[in-house]
Write a structure and sequence with these properties.
About 35% of the residues lie in helices and about 25% in strands. Helix 8 runs parallel beside helix 9 and helix 12 runs parallel beside helix 14. The protein starts with a strand and ends with a strand. Bound molecules: 5'-deoxyadenosine and iron/sulfur cluster. Iron/sulfur cluster binds next to helix 1 and helix 6.
Length: about 425
């Protein structure tokens, strides 16, 4: 057996893709290995979302290349950067394979041809490919929680975003294969699945909506927790929120990227909602699921953003009181609408300053959110030993908060009840009850 090493960057979708790639390769005489040194092929499954993600990966490729000094090794670039940079990556002379997100079925033949000394590139995007029939080889994260890809691509045209160009048009995966995969996960001991798509609310497979799919997966087993990501504020429907409220095993957490609190900026970003619409959706979620956690993504310093726009973002954060947030400053991506139409005119120092302001605010909001949980009892799914001390276990609440408690009885995959005694900004410190 030849050995392949894959490093995964970017979103959860990429993790799911790497698991599909391992499955495809394992049927063609490749086995997975954990270190570059023993690999016959070294690959990076890459991310293009921001410039610093790409720079980091380009630096890493140089380290891969060093391996070639002592032995033959095939170097492959997969995923979003492969799709965005195409031939430019081959032209560096550093890589042997460039393969976009819809071409992974061809990897065995690309590897074979590259081994004969011919660099290979395939960056064709597909309108149909969902890898529906491929059973992923799980990358063991904790043996408890698995990702299931339910759709690929994206039909939104957010002006800052490269994803529609790197992952192509949106397509939904056969619902029955999704349910089968969830059953299979449960049978293998997984107790949590996260359904993944760029915009899960627009899932539609032969008339089955996302709300219906969510119910189908929730019915696989009451002991299988269901999460999903990512929701779009424009598209999240009452039916989805009602379905979440109906099934106790659908976790009470929604990741709802807002991107900005200013209507003027939202319009320039081509987000198809307003601040008022976003707040109405949050109110609806809290009306139907009072304890639902809400997290978000935000971009500081988008083109033409004024101090007033930035203040609108801060006030929206304060108003919603997010439980968690992923916060970035704007990074212009070549080829996007914003790159073509708007100057990237907020200086980097100012972007950083605004970002830091959002981060400090969110740190306070996260702490406040955790403080509200002190004294409460939660059902937690055990993920394993805590990183800090080995007498402690850790696991998450349905609201996606990390809990730590002392426990010598339970193991990964068990459900336990804990009481929150104290907290930090990142963790609930609990006691087993
Ligand atoms: N610059 C900065 N952040 C971005 N994101 C997407 N595109 C960009 C960009 N060009 C952020 C958005 C998205 C998250 C996955 O990454 O907040 O929700
Ligand atoms: Fe995921 Fe977007 Fe990065 Fe591609 S560019 S890996 S879709 S986060």
């Amino acid at each position: 057996m030849k050995k392949v090493y894959i490093e995964t960057y970017g979103c959860q979708m990429n993790v799911a893709d790497t698991e599909i790639i391992f499955s495809i390769l394992s049927r063609h005489g490749w086995e997975r290995c954990e270190s570059i040194e023993e690999a016959d092929a070294v690959m990076a499954n890459t991310c293009s979302i921001r410039d610093n993600a790409e720079q980091r990966i380009l630096g890493r490729i140089d380290q891969f290349v060093l391996q070639r000094q002592s032995r033959p090794v095939i170097i492959g670039i997969l995923g979003c950067m492969a799709e965005r940079m195409k031939e430019k990556l081959l032209d560096t002379g550093k890589v042997d394979i460039v393969a976009g997100p819809d071409t992974y079925r061809r990897l065995p033949e690309l590897l074979e041809a590259a081994a004969d000394g011919h660099p290979q590139i395939d960056v064709m995007l597909s309108r149909e490919e969902t890898y529906a029939d491929i059973a992923p080889v799980r990358i063991d994260r904790n043996g408890v929680s698995a990702f299931i890809s339910i759709m690929r691509g994206c039909n939104n045209v957010c002006s800052y975003c490269v994803v529609p160009y790197t992952r192509g048009a949106e397509r939904s995966r056969d619902a029955h294969t999704i349910v089968r995969e969830a059953c299979d996960c449960f049978a293998k001991g997984y107790r949590e699945v996260t359904l993944l798509g760029q915009n899960v609310d627009s899932y539609n497979w032969e008339g089955i909506s996302f709300a219906q799919l969510l119910a189908m997966v929730a019915e696989v087993n009451p002991l299988l927790r269901v999460r999903f990501s990512t929701s779009n504020p424009q598209d999240i429907s009452d039916a989805v929120i009602q379905t979440m409220a109906r099934y106790p095993n659908i976790c009470h957490h929604i990741h709802l990227p807002v991107q900005s609190g200013s209507d003027r900026i939202l319009e320039k970003m081509r987000r198809r909602y307003t601040r008022a619409w976003y707040l109405e959706r949050v109110a609806k979620i809290r009306e139907l699921i009072p304890d639902c956690a809400i997290s978000t993504d935000v971009i500081a310093g988008f083109c033409s953003e004024t101090l007033e726009d930035h203040a609108d973002t801060l006030s929206l954060f304060e108003q919603v009181g997010f439980d968690a947030a992923y916060m970035f400053y704007y990074s212009e991506r070549p080829g996007t609408l914003a790159a073509r139409k708007y100057p990237d005119d907020v200086p980097i120092e100012e972007k950083t300053r605004r970002l830091n302001e959002i981060i400090s605010l969110q740190n306070r909001l996260s702490l406040e959110s955790n403080r509200r949980d002190v004294g409460k009892v939660f059902e937690v799914l055990v993920e394993g030993p805590s990183k800090k001390t080995d007498r402690d276990l850790c696991g998450r609440t349905g609201t996606n908060k990390m809990c730590v408690w002392t426990d010598s009885v339970h193991k990964s995959g068990d459900y336990v009840k804990v009481k929150v005694l104290d907290c930090t900004q990142a963790t609930l410190l609990c006691q087993l009850i």
